[in-house]
Every structure is written in structure tokens, then in C-alpha cells.
Amino acid sequence: MPMTATTFLTARALLLDMDGTLVNSDAVVERCWRRWADRHGLDGDEVMKVVHGRQGHASMAVLLPDRPKEQNHADNARMLAEETADMDGVVEVPGAAAFLASLAGLPHALVTSADVALSTARMAAAGLPLPELRITAESVGASKPDPEGFLKAAAELGVDPADCVVFEDSGVGIAAGRAAGMRVVGVGSRAGLHGPDALVQDLTEVRVESTPEGAIRLHLG
Questions:
Q1: Which of 47, 55, 143, 171 matches a 20 to 30 Å C-alpha distance to 79?
Q2: Class of residue 120 by CB neighbours under 10 A (exposed 0-12, middle 13-18, buried 19+)
């Protein structure tokens, strides 16, 4: 729901996507995936509609459905190395640093399709601290839109999925949060296309408050 006034949500934990949500890495994602599209004779614009939010091998499986899974995983390893070496233009989403600072001492986790090396590098390039709990590509057997990552984060935090609020920018990420039985705050215009429970343009529109009962109250808008 687009917001014309402040919306309030209450949660026990916040689960945060990285790319497009905390970190603006669109420039490098575009560079790497458009080069990959050229190498495989695919339309770059069509490729970019698929890749946001997914692990690379899962995107490749959608784009090249007849290619062996092992080849996708090998190609993904090369893609991850390429992305990890390219931090040009990686910056925080406006408000991300203040938002993360406001979560100090409150239950939250990073849930990203990036691996440990890429997520560590991108958060550092954007000048953002890493949450203590991080669910990365290595942590799960299935990529978003599968809910595994969000459910694992909730379990490790000891919080019921229904008491979690997800922050996401991509269609597959929003679908994963929904499939996990969680409410989803969409971040940015891309998220608005996929019907999140609430929508903010960036993290400057989010304020976090701890309630006396130990819950997290979100002011959105």
C-alpha cells in the first residue's frame, strides 16, 4: 500500500535484504549481468528483469533452462568473483546507516542472496556495519523466492515468522517473505510493483522505536 501518511507496524524482529534495500549496488549488478548477457547472446534488458534478488545460479537456471546445473554453479562462482572485485558505485541506500544504528540491541538479521565475501565487501564499500546474524548464500539450499533464508533467520533469532517484518526491494524477495508468513516492507520503486504490505522510497522514511514490552515499532512514511 503506498503511503500518504505514517504507517505503523509492530514486530519482534526485522529481517533485512542487502542489495537494493541497504546497499545500492545496481551499477555493478548491471555491468556484470549485461556482460554475462552479451556472452550468452541474451537481451540485457530481459536479463535484468530476472536477476534482482536471486542467487546467480538460480537466475541462470531461469535464463538458460536447458543448461546443466553444474555449469550454472561454476558460472555463478565466476560471476561472484567478478562482482566482489567491482565496488565502483556501491553506496548505501539513503538512511541505511542511521536505520542500522537504530537497531543496535534489537533482534535483526541480514538475509541476502550474496555470499559471505560479496556481502562483506558491499556492506564495507557502503560504509555499513554487518548485523551480528547473517544468512548468506552459503547458509541455505534454496534461493529466494524460496522462504528458507527468512525462516532460518527467524529460527536463529527465536522469533515466530508471523512476528517478523522483512525489508526487501525485489519481487522474488517479497515473494520469499510472504511465503515465510511474514509482513514485507518494500524499499524503492522496484518493490512497489510487487504489492508489499507497506512501501517506502528509501530508509530515511523508516523510524524504529523499542516498546516497553520489548517489541519493535516501525514508523513508516
A1: 171
A2: middle
H or E stretch covering 110 = strand 108-111
Active site residue 19: yes
Our answer to whether residue 160 is catalytic in this structure is no
d(CA 148, CA 142): 7
Positive or negative CA dihedral for 11, 199, 63, 77? negative
The answer to whether the beta carbons of residues 143 and 160 sit under 8 Å apart is no
pLDDT at residue 4 tops 60: no
Q: Is the pLDDT of residue 126 over 90?
A: yes
Choosing from 17, 75, 146, 163, the catalytic residue is 17
Q: What is the mean pLDDT of residues 44-73?
A: 95
DSSP 7-28: EEEEESEEEE--BTTTEE-HHH
Q: Of 19, 75, 115, 197, which is the active-site residue?
A: 19
Nine-digit cell string for 178: 510472504
Count of CB atoms within 10 A of residue 111's CB? 33
